[in-house]
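Minutes, project huddle
Topic: does the predicted pose make sense with malonyl-coenzyme A bound?
PN asked that the exact inputs be recorded in the minutes so nobody has to dig through chat later. Recorded below.
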Amino acid sequence: MTSNNINDNFYQLLREQFPTDLSLPAVYDDAGVYSWSDLDKGSAMMANLLQGLALPKGSRIAVQVDKSVEAVMLYLATLRAGYVFLPLNTAYQSAEVAYFIDNAKPAVVVCSPATFGWVSKVAFTHGVGSVFTLSDERTGSLLDRAAHYDSQHTPVQLMPDDLAVIIYTSGTTGRSKGAMLSHHNLASNAQTLKAYWGWQPGDVLLHALPIFHVHGLFVAIHAALINGSPMIWMKKFDAQSAIAHMQRATVFMGVPTLYVRLLAQAQLNPQAVANMRLFISGSAPLLTDTFQQWHERTGHTILERYGMSETIMLTSNPYSADARHQGANQRKGGTVGFALPDVELRVVNDDGVVLANTQTGHIEVKGPSVFLGYWNMPEKTAEEFTADGFFKTGDVGVVSSQGYVTIVGRNKDLIISGGYNVYPAEIEAVINKLPGVSESAVVGIAHADFGEVGVAVVVADKGAVLDPLAVLTAIKGELANFKVPKHCVVVDELPRNAMGKVQKNILRQQYTSHVFASH
Ligand code: MLC
Ligand code: AMP
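Predicted holo structure (tokens), as shared on screen:
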């Protein structure tokens, strides 16, 4: 990997783009305004605190906290100190957190004061050295301790391939895998998106996504920081407030559910978005209906892009004329646009033979933002890469003669619900352990708000009687709430093909028609 940076610490690159006047606003929060100096000094103090713990190089800092600007400082502090940030969805329950802690063996865990009881128990049981708390109201032991540290900090010297973040993604078989992303992965993608999306002086990002996944943490926050642009910060998405904030914002990023909810607001009209320059959608398929309605209601054309935790962003519809594609500048609904300038994207058949444009197959990618591999899972990593170094995305797609990529399906058994990934295998494993359950199949069906939601189809043990609601209640404590199927049905048997494999397509058809007929 080549690099011209004297220090390949990604924070250094971000810091160089901060405005010269550090007293300017960097984040507008409900509670007040944070300046660029606040971000720099707050993250310096936390970085000094972390370094004061004298942790070994590459130590993981696992963080499960509510969205706050201080949580962003903690992320930046971890980068500065050269440790590895491990963000965890706040919806994860103790069994899930225990798995991540056991797998990643973090040296430090930061959790919310409200969850300290059970998180610290899990952490200390797994040998974690330090557990701090951080609330979304500027309180917690992390801030108390960091207050004693210096507000100057020089980012630790790093190499481009040094690890910056581990993001866990669930798997089609068994447990989650930690995708290892380097400082170079983060830096290259942030720079590419800054140029491709035409970030400019005066831009203001409306940040409404959670910050424990790639979309909210990397795509959104990196974009603002690397452009020296302020963010309007929403702790939680709410359609009415988001529209009100658009008076002062220029860029918005959302999963399709956010666009669906915004469209349901009567006050969404061209005046409300007159200040906006760009609307970006990703993480899940944007229905062409939503794309068209948005254009009719606002006059704006949503720019849809596609990425993964393992790769950050891979493709994007053009913001402006793309010289690589005869100056095409059209954002096409139903497509995820062109491979980004430094991404090689190809479509292959089942035998790995590269297909021509307009032929459908498996999407494989190579590029500077593609991850280093799965944490402590070399065999899994080897399986997911081809001999010539392409990553197998698990998505099925087609590239048009003009170069537009369309995702037509997935060859991984995955449900994307409101932008969150839900792997049926994980849910089925939990359901199958319940008393009286013989087997189960979880399938995704269309849903007006979340795009897709899970339905659990369960078979009882011989002689046992199962209450569908009791099944859902029983798994609620075990799984993050967004993973819990929205509906459960008990059946006599699951449909199987001649090989004995459950025919999920049949279940999907069967339940789509009646379960959510009212939506
Ligand atoms: C919440 N609920 C969901 C859900 N979110 N159910 C299914 N799918 C979801 N995504 C359920 C809760 O379990 C709860 O049910 C009820 O809805 C209310 O919870 P809530 O927290 O009040 O929901 P709400 O705030 O309305 O959240 C909806 C949402 C949120 C769409 C705002 O899910 C969200 O922020 N999604 C964005 C996800 C995201 O950032 N993805 C990026 C991944 S990165 P109950 O029964 O418990 O009351 C990636 C790569 C890439 O994919 O390309 O970007
Ligand atoms: P995650 O593992 O959470 O990073 O999710 C990555 C997956 O989200 C991809 O492999 C795709 O299946 C899906 N995805 C992301 N963006 C899009 C999009 N714009 N359209 C369709 N699917 C998408």
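Observations noted during the meeting:
- The pocket of malonyl-coenzyme A (ligand 1) is lined by residues 209-210, 213-216, 236-237, 255, 257, 282-283, 307-309, 417-420, 450, 453, 481-482 (CB under 6 Å).
- The radius of gyration is 23 Å.
No decisions taken; revisit at the next huddle.
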